[in-house]
Amino acid sequence: MSQLVKDRPLTPVSSGPLSHARLPRWAPAAIAVGSIAAGCAIGLAAGWQSRVQWGMIAALLFVLATYLITTKVENSRQAKDRVATSLVWVCFVLAVVPLFSLGWVTITKGMEVVDGYFLGHSMNGVLDAEPGGGIYHALLGTIEQVLIAAVVATPIGLLTAIYLVEYGRGKLAKAVTFFVDVMTGIPSIVAGLFVLATWNLMLGFGPSGFAGGIALAILMMPVVVRSTEEMLKLVPNELREASLALGVPKWRTILKVVLPTAIGGITTGVMLAVARVTGETAPVLLLVFGTKLINPNPFEGAQSSLPLYVYEQYAVGTDASIARAWGAALVLIAFVMILNLVARGIARWKAPKTGK
């Protein structure tokens, strides 16, 4: 049998070409430029004033032209692959363009008023319709309220996530997971009303930055729990097993092995939660009330915050107040960015060192 197999002549599997025509590397860029030009031409010919319509037409032409040209030059299989890639790029551009547009408008309008005076003075003695004044009182209130929310929500969310990943079993873990999912979708106004009903009305406390911080902490907790839970699940079980095999207690394994391994993702999740609550206006409006005066005590008296300041100034409607609103929005964005950069630095500093 082996001799027959050896003597059997070999027949070619396929007589087709080993390669086929392919589009050049610059073809997608050329198709994109042509689609943009065609979309602009169609928009001008149709008399459309909205640039969004021009962009949508260009995106459709880009996907359609990519499919037709690729099918003509290559084959339908490659055309489908390129269409999928084109759709990914189109969605990416549609998501990035509004972001860059918002950032550009905020920077250009906000830089007109942001200076040392604007950052170092409050609105005390300044009418909302008149020029002048600053955001010092609102910036101070935002820092204190966000700090209170982070101090309250971070340890509770972190410990809850550790329980769900490392210890949680049975009905209690399922109930905690269910309530965390429910809290994720709670509107901010509901959290503000809850704190208003309990802290202010039932216990008799007045408006304060602390009440606003508690409401923000309620909104932060589910985000911290979910993000920390996912990061802890990514830690390899081999690390836990190796630590336990050496006789290290489980609590010490979590403290010295699991948490340092996931510290980067945990810090990012906490910063996402901070960014999520920093721009909230409804709880602050209900619980903090807002003021033009500088109040450094978050436990007594009304305070202001940057989101509330932006809302109040924009509602006035004068040129001076709208300019102050843009300036406060720019400072708010810069505040969140600085927090993220600091958190990334701390996470990189505390992350376990890996050898090369």
Describe this structure in words.
By secondary structure, the chain is mainly α. It is built from 15 helices and no strands. It is flat, with a radius of gyration of 29 Å. The mean pLDDT is 85.
Task: Provide a brief overview of the structure.
The chain has 356 residues and is mainly alpha-helical. The chain has 15 helices and no strands. The protein has helices at residues 2-7, 27-46, 51-73, 76-110, 116-120, 136-167, 170-184, 188-202, 209-233, 237-245, 250-261, 263-278, 282-287, 306-316, 319-350.
Layout of strands and helices, then pairs:
Layout: H1 2-7, H2 27-46, H3 51-73, H4 76-110, H5 116-120, H6 136-167, H7 170-184, H8 188-202, H9 209-233, H10 237-245, H11 250-261, H12 263-278, H13 282-287, H14 306-316, H15 319-350
Write a concise keyword list for the protein shown above:
356 residues; 15 helices; mainly alpha
How many runs of DSSP E, i.e. beta strands? 0
Strand content: under 5%
Radius of gyration over C-alpha positions, nearest whole angstrom: 29 Å
- The helix/strand class is mainly alpha
Task: Encode the helix/strand succession as letters.
Answer: HHHHHHHHHHHHHHH
Which word captures the global form?
flat
Number of helices: 15
> What do the pLDDT scores average to?
85
Unreliable spans are: none
Task: Please bin the fraction of helical residues.
Answer: over 70%
Tell me the major beta sheet.
none
Distance between the first and last residues' Cα = 55 Å
